[in-house]
C-alpha cells in the first residue's frame, strides 16, 4: 500500500440551494487510479462487509443518524426513500437480495465499501472529462445529463462550470463517469444536515484507500 | 383658522388617482422563507416518526408499507405548496401506520391471552391453532390444541397443547 495523500476540496453550492439547505456540501478529491479488476483483498473485504448485514439490522438502519439524515434530505427534495433508495440502503438491499456483495470492478467496489462503512453517498467521475471546479446547483430548463438524459427544471445536480455531470443521489452522466480508459478519478461525497464532516472525510479516505490497495 | 365641518372641504386633498401604481415586491418574501424552513423541519420530524413506526413493526411481514409517493422530477427544490402537500401526506402515513400497528398489537395481545387459556384449559379450545406470527414473533412455531393418544384422547376428553419445534427444514 502506498502512502496516501488526499487533497480534499470543498465544492461550491449555488446560493439559492445553500439558503434552502445551509449544511449541504460537496467534498471531492482526485486520485490517480485507473479502473481495473479488484484484487483479492478488496473482494475479501466485500465478503466480510456482507457478513455484517442481517434483516433486522437493515430494517433498523433508517434510525441510524447518518442514513437517517440522507433519508430526510431525500424526502425534502421530493424523493421517496422507500422507493428510490439512498445509496447506503441500496447497498444493504443488494446484499439481502444477492446474498452477498458481488465484486464489480475496483472503483465500484471502493465506492460500495465506503458507502456501506460510513453511510455517506459517493460517486466517481473521470477527471479528464469533467471541466473546472465541481459544485451543486439547480438544473436549468432544457439541460441534459450526458447526451441523452433530459433533466427537470430546478433539479439538484452535481455540475462543473459548464454542465451537469450527475444527479444528486442519482445517476452519473454517461459523458462524465469512469470508463476503462480513465486515467484519474474524482471521488465526490455529498454532505447534508446531520452528517458530521468527519464522516464525509472518512468516506473519501476509505474509498481512496481501497482504490490504492 | 378653519375648524369643524369646513375643515373637510378646505384641507388639501392629495391627488392619489393620478399617481402611478408601482408595487415593488421583494424577490422572495421573508414569510415564505420562514414557512419553508418550518415545513422542512416538520418533514424531518415526520420522517423520524415514520421510521420509528416502521422499525416497531419488525418482524411483522403483513403490515402496510408506509409509502409516500415521490413528487416526481427527481431531486429538486419543492414549491411551498408541494412541501405542504408532502408534510400532509407524511402526517397521514404516520397516523395510518400507527393505527395499523396499534390494531395489530391489540390482536396479538388477545392471541397471547388465548395461548395462556389454551394452556390452562385445553379442552375448552379443541383443535385451536395459534402461530408465532399471530403474536408478532418471528419463526414458524405454533401452539396447537390436540388430543392425547389420538382417538382415545378425543373420546376421553384428554386434550393438550402441542408446541411445534420450529420451521421445517428446506427441501
What best-fitting shape of chain B do the alpha-carbon axes yield?
rod-shaped
**Counting H and I runs of at least 4 residues, what is the number of helices of chain B?**
4
Helix content of chain B: 40-55%
- Termini Cα gap of chain B: 111 Å
Given the helix and strand composition of chain A, which structural class is it? Answer: alpha+beta
Strand content of chain B: 5-15%
**What pattern of helices and strands is seen along the backbone of chain A?**
EEHEHHHHHEEEEEEEH
Distance between the termini of chain A: 6 Å
Described by the principal axes of the CA atoms, the overall outline of chain A is globular
Oligomeric state of the chains in view: heterodimer
The spatial strand order of the largest sheet of chain A comes to: 1-3-10-4
Provide the structure class of chain B: mainly alpha
Strand order across the largest sheet of chain B: 1-2-3
Low-pLDDT regions of chain A? none
Task: Give me a quick take on this structure.
The complex is a heterodimer of chains A (213) and B (171). Chain A is of the alpha+beta class.
Descriptive overview:
The complex is a heterodimer of chains A (213) and B (171). With 213 residues, chain A is of the alpha+beta class. Chain A is 36% helix and 18% strand. Chain A has 7 helices and 10 strands. Chain A has a 4-stranded antiparallel β-sheet with strand order 1-3-10-4, with helices on one face. In chain A, strands 2-5-8-9 form a 4-stranded mixed β-sheet. In chain A, strand 8 (156-159) and strand 9 form a beta hairpin. Chain A is globular and about 45 Å long. The termini of chain A are close together. The model of chain A has no long low-confidence stretch (mean pLDDT 91). Chain B is rod-shaped. The longest helix of chain B has 41 residues, at 80-120. The model of chain B has no long low-confidence stretch (mean pLDDT 82). In chain B, helix 2 (30-57) runs parallel beside helix 3. By secondary structure, chain B is mostly helical. A 3-stranded antiparallel β-sheet of chain B has the order 1-2-3. The A-B interface holds A 16-17, 19-20, 55-56, 59-60, 62-63, 68, 71-72, 74-80, 82-84, 138-139, 151-156, 167-170 and B 33, 36, 40, 43-44, 47-48, 51-52, 54-55, 58-59, 65-78, 82, 86, 90.
